[in-house]
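ok trying this again, last paste got cut off
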Amino acid sequence: LGDHKVGGEAILPGTAFLETALAVAQQWLKADSVIVSELEIQAPLDLTNGETREVMTRLSPGSNTIEILSRARLSQAGWLLHCRGKIQTGNAAYTPHAPEMPATGHVLTGPEIYGIASDTGLHYGPAFQLVRRVVLHNDTLLSVELRPSPEETAYLLDPVRVDCCGHGLFALLPQLQAKERGVTYIPVRLEETTLYRPHVAPERAVIEVVSKSERSIVTNCYIFGAKGEIVAVLRGVRGQAISTRRTSSLENVAFVE
């Protein structure tokens, strides 16, 4: 987790909140295919100072609303709400389809992708540098290839590898002049995530750009396993622009309006 840094701060990836929500959904709904919807990340979980934090997941059975909170371990401090969403059973019989991909496109290597990330305040260590290459096919379609891994994983949806699938979006940052503007983009909302095949390690992704502007990037992300099967689909992933010029402390980072 120390390899996942935003503006110099070690921050728990938003995909770790998603993995937690999926695990609770599976246990509560007793289903393999589950959906987490309207997941909003309201506050980051900062791990910079090496403080141990305990995390609580709270479920409201009447509405299937899920909340993830934390506080310093063994303290009497109040719980800090990090994210909130809803859970429901998915349709295991449904076969999703990704967009048709053009055969050609502009290729960026892993080092090029992480160079762009570093220029905009996202400093990843080796554990979060899994992108082998990104192909920018056109203005709305990208494909992301990760370094290989074992086909199975203890996670329902490996949060590190899913986070790295999202790194394909860094290919768009030069178009948005993110470096010149002193901003980067962090995920703040996932409209709907459907898990189709738990415990299959993500190997590649197709990213469909719904919209992009100086304020935000909205995408759909199709996650694939090593055998070409769709593992999960993340729809309506909203990355919000934040300014990293004024300070390296995430507590004072300003959202770009």
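PB: full thing came through this time. The first strand starts at residue 4 and ends at 6.
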